[in-house]
TrEMBL record:
Keyword Membrane: no
Database matches in InterPro entries: Rrp5, TPR-like_helical_dom_sf
Keyword annotations of the record: Coiled coil
Superkingdom to which the source organism belongs: Eukaryota
Protein name: Uncharacterized protein
Species per Swiss-Prot/TrEMBL record: Cirrhinus mrigala (Mrigala)
Coiled-coil ranges (or none): 2-33
Length: 83
């Protein structure tokens, strides 16, 4: 194994910090539409009564022709949203 120089280690650390900062900014930006199940679940934990978010989550599954998952999300939404 080749030992890395201090300069290379510093560059790697800066790169990792930049990637982390970018990810944090994306997570904080409310205008970014989630693009995976994990992102939707995270948003639903913070806003369980958001009917718009539940509908977007169902539409996400329907776009992937995952009809059963969309139906399950809809049923969860009806149980979760307080009227």
């Amino acid at each position: 194994p080749v030992k890395k120089t201090r300069k290379e280690l510093k560059a790697e650390k800066q790169n990792a910090e930049q990637q982390l900062s970018k990810l944090e900014a994306e997570l904080m930006d409310t205008s970014v539409r989630p693009d995976n199940t994990t992102a939707f679940e995270r948003l639903l934990l913070s806003s369980p009564d958001s009917s718009l978010l539940w509908l977007q989550y169902m539409a996400f599954h329907l776009q992937s022709t995952q009809i059963e998952q969309a139906r399950a999300v809809g049923e969860r939404a009806l149980k979760t949203i307080s009227f």
